[in-house]
Write a structure and sequence with these properties.
This protein is α/β, with parallel strands linked by helices. Helices cover 39% and strands 14% of the residues. It binds ribulose-5-phosphate.
């Protein structure tokens, strides 16, 4: 039975401090459930409102590509510097220690590889995502690809239904349709389709006019890095995207294929979280690289 002898009256009601009515710090999330916001807060640094996601999901399409031959060696050393890990269930389970407390954005669609026709994908089960304690689930939309647009949008809508049931944010990954121009009009359309279908995060590519892509997308946008560039160019890409309003990066090859991946991810992080200018971030990269 409860001890009723010492029931003290509360005296700390903060009467001069009204309850906060301000919105959540990430755009487009005010109408979302507490659990979804809480998961978003694991991924997006509450101070900067931004994130450095480390993408290493490439293997399900292309096998052990350069930099991802040994995820247990190559990626593990980068984990401390990332805000979130994006990978497949197989690589996360087998190569990332379960004691790792970084949030996971789980690649939740899977399908055909570069050896056949890409993007004929299906979803893994929500039980998998829940059992892996996913902070977000990612699936690709092949907007503009006649063969796979409809099925990838259907997958995505399904995933958003599941995400909304369990308050797990869903990230829309825009794959560039074969015949699509990689311009702001296309990425603006593709990003908006993700948001219209319920994405909490949109991953797309930087392009000229990116501020319009971000402005027309009511939820946080992160950029993929794309093919490996010289480090200074990759940092310039990050900087331009952030200055256009991107909420961070979900970057793979430009980190893990760098000569000095741990130095590179720290330089990217400085651009993302501290608005560091590209040349200064490159100097930081060089310094960290030389420190070994
Ligand atoms: C592939 C992906 C990758 O995660 C994405 O392309 C990010 O990696 P990179 O920075 O190497 O482009 O979603 O479907």
């Amino acid at each position: 039975m409860a001890d009723l002898d010492d029931i003290r009256d509360g005296d700390n009601f903060g009467l001069n401090t009204p309850a906060s009515t301000s919105g959540f710090y990430l755009k487009g999330m005010d109408g979302s459930d507490w659990g979804l916001k809480n998961r978003m807060a694991r991924i997006f640094n509450p101070e900067s409102g931004r994130t450095v996601m480390l993408a290493f999901d490439h293997g399900f399409l292309m096998g052990p590509t350069s930099g991802l031959e040994r995820i247990d060696l190559g990626i593990r050393s980068l984990v401390d510097y990332a805000d979130c890990l994006m990978g497949t269930r197989g690589m996360i389970r087998s190569c990332i220690p379960a004691g790792c407390t970084k949030p996971v954005c789980l690649r939740t669609d899977t399908g055909t590889t570069i050896l056949t026709e890409m993007n004929h994908n299906t979803l893994i089960s929500e039980e998998e995502a829940i059992s892996m304690n996913a902070s977000a689930m990612a699936a690709m939309l092949a907007i503009g690809d006649a063969a796979t647009e409809a099925s990838t949008i259907a997958n995505f809508s399904n995933l958003v239904d599941i995400g909304n049931t369990y308050s797990i944010p869903v990230m829309g990954v825009t794959a560039v349709g074969k015949d699509m121009a990689r311009d702001a009009r296309y990425f603006g359309l593709a990003s908006r389709v993700c948001a219209e279908n319920g994405a909490s995060i949109v991953k797309t590519y930087y392009t000229e006019g990116f501020e319009k892509v971000v402005a027309a997308c009511p939820v946080p946008v992160v950029i993929a890095g794309g093919k490996k560039l010289p480090e200074l160019e990759a940092l310039e890409l990050c900087y331009k995207a952030i200055q256009c309003g991107a909420s961070g990066v979900d970057m793979g090859r430009n980190v893990f294929q760098s000569d000095a991946p741990t130095a590179m991810i720290q330089a990217v992080s400085a651009v993302v979280h501290k608005d560091m200018k590209p040349q200064e971030a490159f100097d930081l990269f060089e310094t960290l690289k030389n420190e070994g």
